[in-house]
User: What shape does this take?
Amino acid sequence: MSMSMATKDSSWWIFTLPAFLGSETLLDQYIIFSLLAAFVSLALLTWAFTPGGAAWKNGRTRGGAAAIPGPRGLPFIGSLFTLSGRGCLAHRSLAAIASSMNAKQLMAFSLGSTPAVVASDPQIAKEILTSVHFADRPIKQSARSLMFSRAIGFAPNGTYWRLLRRIAASHLFAPRRIAAHEPGRQKDCAAMLSGIADEQSLNGSVTLRKHLQAAALNNIMGGVFGRRYETAADAASPEMRELEEMVREGFELLGAFNWSDYLPWLSYFYDPSRIVERCETLVPRVRKFVKNIIKEHEERSNYGNATDIAADFVDVLLSLDGEEKLNEDDMIAVLWEMIFRGTDTTALLTEWIMAELILNPEVQSKLRKELDSAVTAAAGDLTDADVAALPYLQAVVKETLRVHPPGPLLSWARLSTSDVHLSNGMVVPAATTAMVNMWSITHDPAVWAEPLVFKPERFVAAMGGADVDVRGGDLRLAPFGAGRRVCPGKNLGMTTVALWVAKLVRRFEWAADENKPVDLSEVLKLSCEMKFPLTAVALERNVLI
Ligand code: HEM
Assistant: This one.
């Protein structure tokens, strides 16, 4: 009897739902269920018929004469997995998808509810980076929490951002300011070389990264804060420890992939890396640290002297008057940002260069020959000016920027502020996040012959190569971006790296460590760095440096 009842009416359990869900009537439940089902079906249907995924609904990819192709990704989250995950190399995954979909010029994809495009073609990349409608950036939650929305990199395009760029351009990055800080740079470099020599004689090999990071931090701290940590005691001081720890934590927070940036509702209950909490802990530490330095400058009260060519950037900011005067929080944001932008990029680019020089001994000896004859000609130590005039050295730096661009997706994306019409007939709608896959362009055989071969000669005019402008003028190789938001630190970065490489190669012969062969695997964090820090044998040469 009970058996037949069960078979006759197998939906009896529905009548128990109101009790479980605490609802008064069954009708409520049906309505909720139907609405939910309708919503999910609609979302799935939208997703199924939308190139680029759900964030591109309502035909947003088809605003121009040509539609923007792109992968649908997964329902609701779109292509988030392409960018997230441990060991994920987003530049390579995006390049592979763009190539398979014939979407190198421009590809649409969805990052949760955020519509995004990526250009892997020099012409379209140029149009995006130089467009006035792409002069904003989307800002991550961590960057906003760490005050970066008031710093140069994330400040929206407008009066405040233009003011910051102008101040930085004339007081921090102008060629004469860079030249004025050369003595400090030479000192940091000399300290790095002796640290390397000591480690080599102690261990028989050198792990280069920590030496480069310390020199990079000192270089920025010197130019920006007027403070260097030169002696062993300085380097081990609690202040330096605190600084290093804050920088490391900041890098981790800014580099971490945060799902809530693209699925904002997740932030209410899912924050596995505790990003919000960690930012809240870090900010007061940063404030205290930077405020102390500002206070010391104020007490010295000679910042009226900021026109002094060797003044540091704190002096300059303190000396601003009237409408240009920044409040304390803005100053902290701007100063703190410089440390983040300026340290890892120069250190990790130099590490890639040294790795390539070890793997390509013939390039290393050719470079050393050029350096040795330059020292003879300069009748003394190598200066920034000598180094800038060495074509092979400059070509080695450029070739490394090509093979290992530190920001393979140019690090910080752009945001369109109105519809942008491109020369290929496509239209990028307003409020779209745009990336440029510089790595894909620099590895494209249609753009560069034998793209996987490390060949600095391709940049030396006298060796049949091309003199390519890497500072934003030629989108075949624009590792510093281009347009009005191009990297303002490009000259400082190039000068520093070229000087370091010149001195490293002149003072030591570099060879692979047999126990730890050079491994060019990448890891993409805030920038793209060597996954396994470079360890090498540095044999001291008998030269005056
Ligand atoms: C090898 C060294 C470096 C590389 C490869 C690099 C790369 C980049 C890239 C790709 C961008 C985005 C550009 C764009 O959107 O078009 C950028 C922006 C920026 N970089 Fe650099 N950078 C380097 C060194 C530096 C240094 C040394 C500093 C400062 C001390 C610096 C400060 C900045 C700032 C403030 C921005 C934001 C500009 C804005 O949004 O207006 N960079 N950098």
